[in-house]
């Protein structure tokens, strides 16, 4: 009985040694979380930039509505809220002749946009955690913890072997424990890689859908800029004497806004390819990640444009003629 | 991606383009001193503007409804990734516990001996 167990342990040791060698030869490097963290980080400037534009649109629409009431174009009667008869907490501008004012719709649109971007960021953050990029630490044990596990196994396996009356040479026992833990490390690293690839592959169609939807939102915001330009340019162009400086400043602000929106659209457009690149990143491929690079570049460009837009808008406000 | 929203955005683009052209004509009429004609054109311009704003409101509403569905899908994707994380953590914990439990065999054997004896 004793010799059978000893033989079994010997065979096990040979098997584990051989497998460890295979692991060493094939390589078992952990997933690099950096590309996953970069992907998540690129989403934040996109969310912040589009949120600022949507907030601006909702606020401009509200101000315009107030002006129309002041000018008598809209009746104050249309401002009365109608309380829902079946829902104690719901209200609407149900008495308004033309239905709900646009500023209410744009307010909801902005909230929807924020929720959508936050949902995407939430997913990306969780993916980064799976890849080992959590700021609180990797989900897998560190190298030190794996060493400790090997030491624990070595100590406890010795106790177990003694209890079972099995004789294992102390040197071989240590090697056996180390090999077992190394094998587990390789297995769990591989498992993580598989889980990452499976998750990315499964969510890829959703990311494409998200990117298209966000691009549509950007197009809508661009259309609001164009409409707003055509409303405001008329009095500027017909003022006597002509105020070219005010016109040009307004033109520049409009152009900078559109360039910023275009950058947002490009950023969202780059997302599906960047997300697909994360599959390669899970396999520790560091070259050919063109999608991730394009997204990172667009996010940096957008950051610069947002700063420029803030400056241009400040100049436009200063140059606007006072009534 | 909603094809209907895409189509409406294309229509909106065309309407905005027309608005720009009408605005330019109105400016030229005003600058040329043809105030009556400019005023007449302004009525049509405002009517177009109203239609543009109505369509913008419709698109914003439709987009918001579609986005809610997408938020739900992304949240579900997030939950699934969290499950994957939990599964991996469980596997690690099982091995961590196993390395400790093996040490308890001594006690288990002693216990068995008392039961068998």
Kindly summarize this structure in a few lines.
Chain A is mainly α.
Explain what you see.
The complex is a heterodimer of chains A (323) and B (117). Chain A has 323 residues and is mainly α. In chain A, 77% of the residues lie in helices and 1% in strands. Chain A contains seven helices and two strands; from the N terminus they run H-H-E-E-H-H-H-H-H. Chain A has a two-stranded antiparallel sheet with strand order 1-2. In chain A, strand 1 and strand 2 (91-92) form a beta hairpin. Chain A is elongated and about 100 Å long. Chain B has 117 residues and is an all-alpha fold. Chain B has one domain. Helix content of chain B is 92%, strand content 0%. Chain B has three helices and no strands. In chain B, helix 1 (3-31) runs antiparallel to helix 2 (35-101). The longest helix of chain B is centred in the middle third of the chain and has 67 residues, at 35-101. Chain B is rod-shaped and about 115 Å long. In chain B, 24% of the residues are buried. The mean pLDDT of chain B is 91.
N- to C-terminal separation of chain A?
103 Å
For the largest beta-sheet of chain B, the strand count, sense and barrel status come to:
none
Mean pLDDT of chain A: 86
Radius of gyration of chain B: 35 Å
Q: What spatial form of chain A do the alpha-carbon principal axes imply?
A: elongated
